[in-house]
Inverse folding.
């Protein structure tokens, strides 16, 4: 080997050593380790079905270090402890952006759109009515504290404001007919929603027992003017209710003329004073429903 060749090799080895220990610089790319999300935008509308939206990082993605909403009056955001997801909460309708920063310095913008329909649907879902059954003298409206509105039942109108308990009791002016429409218009934080209901029947019976000439029916939610009827072998026997048993249980005894036996087939009807049927059922007296009577009293037929 010549003297020149040896010098060349020495220089070459020195250059290679320098290169080996030099830091490696590379252009950033969205490969594993960079901030990659499973969703690129957030939309709240009438189909959202929840009070927040989650965005997760993809497999192999960098963790989220910070999340900042450009307009906090539209939405707010929080980051999970490990930085694997964010939770976005709507505040009012409008558009904004969330700026995410990854642990490695990546920056990603997430557009957020909050539609007015989201809050209208949310108000509808939040507003409920209870106790609106036939015969009730009071109802309860539940919604956001501070919400105001009107409730129309037939020709009557009731104004209300929801208090801190989020439930408002309203005393009704009269007993409304079965099926009467109830229209609630409610407003909250500048949003207005219409929620419809109807007067329905909550009257039921859960069991009965019979002797030769009596049928004892265990009922719930009877009202003054209702009739409990037993139809047996083509004849109808009835008992008129003279008091309100609103939201209460009551055992009603109906007397019959024709002799009842085990395996006898009966029809049960409960009708209100407007001749609307509240309960309709057919039964066969099985062994446990039939007992030996103490007396032989009979009742009058409903011709």
């Amino acid at each position: 080997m010549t003297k020149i060749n040896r010098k060349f090799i020495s220089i070459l080895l020195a250059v290679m050593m320098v290169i080996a220990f030099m830091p490696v610089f590379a252009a950033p790319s969205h490969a594993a380790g960079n901030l990659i999300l499973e969703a690129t935008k957030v939309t709240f509308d009438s189909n959202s079905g929840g009070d927040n939206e989650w965005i997760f990082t993809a497999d192999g993605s960098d963790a989220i270090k910070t999340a900042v909403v450009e307009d906090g009056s539209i939405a707010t955001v929080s980051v999970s402890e490990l930085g694997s997801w964010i939770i976005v909460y709507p505040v009012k309708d409008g558009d904004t952006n969330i700026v995410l920063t990854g642990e490695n310095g990546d920056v990603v913008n997430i557009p957020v759109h909050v539609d007015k329909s989201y809050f209208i649907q949310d108000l509808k879902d939040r507003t409920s009515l209870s106790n609106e059954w036939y015969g009730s003298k009071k109802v309860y409206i539940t919604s956001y504290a501070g919400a105001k509105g009107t409730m129309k039942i037939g020709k009557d109108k009731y104004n209300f404001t929801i208090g801190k308990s989020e439930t408002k009791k309203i005393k009704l002016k009269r007993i409304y007919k079965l099926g009467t429409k109830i229209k609630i218009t409610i407003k909250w934080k500048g949003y207005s929603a219409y929620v419809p209901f109807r007067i329905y029947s909550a009257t039921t019976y859960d069991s009965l027992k019979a002797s030769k000439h009596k049928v004892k029916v265990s009922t719930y939610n009877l009202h003054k003017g209702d009739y409990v009827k037993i139809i047996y072998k083509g004849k109808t026997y009835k008992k008129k209710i003279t008091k309100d048993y609103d939201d209460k249980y009551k055992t009603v005894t109906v007397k019959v003329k024709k002799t009842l036996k085990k395996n006898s087939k009966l029809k049960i009807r409960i009708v209100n004073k407007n001749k609307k049927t509240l309960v309709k059922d057919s039964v066969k007296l099985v062994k446990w429903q039939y007992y030996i009577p103490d007396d032989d009293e009979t009742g009058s037929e409903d011709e």
About this structure: The two ends are 133 Å apart (CA to CA). The first strand starts at residue 42 and ends at 44.
